[in-house]
From TrEMBL:
GO terms for molecular function: ATP binding; ATP-dependent peptidase activity; metalloendopeptidase activity. This is Peptidase family M41. InterPro entries: Peptidase_M41-like (IPR037219). It comes from the Bacteria. GO terms for biological process: proteolysis.
Length: 198
């Protein structure tokens, strides 16, 4: 394998990881009922800045009761956690230890921060009278609970995410110096997502 082939393989691997990560956010957002926006992988100047991506989600939802706030916080947490779990999959199978490490110490730290913020809100609602020591334990329990729920959901969607990531990366690699950007409408029309969500 020559240098150019090695670089292309490295770039493809990075983009696959990125595509799975962003698809994790996108798919989970749709499952819990949030509206999704544009989806992007890669940069217009990939060789200089390295791959990047985003999956926009509209987090607006009417919250009139305590129960609705609790559900909203749980759903936002699952959307945040889904990215790293999907991104670290190998052959459409979640690698939990690797995902946990990436979440806390690697590229998933922003998602971890979002998840913890929502768990703190959730804890404040569910256990308003706890002291600091109790609150720390409650946050840990809620995080573990939501982590396991997210694993269960992303595991069920793993094969679709892997197949869709492959499809999108193949499209991206045809224009290596341009980002692949799809609108919410274009994403919804992709056969795999259309079959899953209608």
């Amino acid at each position: 394998m020559n240098f150019e082939d090695e670089e292309r393989e490295r770039e493809t691997d990075l983009l696959m990881h990125l595509a799975r990560h962003e698809l994790g956010h996108h798919v989970m957002a749709r499952i819990v009922g949030f509206k999704v926006g544009d989806f992007k992988i890669g940069q217009d100047t990939l060789q200089i800045y390295g791959p990047g991506g985003s999956s926009s989600t509209n987090m607006m939802r009417p919250l009139r009761t305590k129960e609705e706030i609790v559900t909203y916080s749980r759903d936002r947490c699952k959307v945040a956690l889904a990215g790293v779990l999907a991104g670290e999959m190998e052959d459409a199978v979640i690698v939990e230890a690797q995902s946990e490490n990436k979440l806390e110490h690697g590229g998933g730290q922003d998602d971890y921060t979002k998840a913890i913020e929502n768990i703190q809100l959730l804890r404040n609602i569910l256990y308003p009278d706890s002291d600091i020591e109790e609150a720390t334990k409650e946050v840990h329990v809620l995080l573990k609970e939501l982590w396991m729920e997210t694993i269960q959901i992303i595991s069920a969607e793993g094969l679709m995410i892997e197949q869709l990531a492959t499809e999108l990366v193949e499209r991206k690699m045809k224009t290596p110096k341009k980002a692949l950007i799809l609108t919410a409408e274009e994403m919804a029309e992709l056969p795999l997502l259309k079959e899953r969500f209608g």
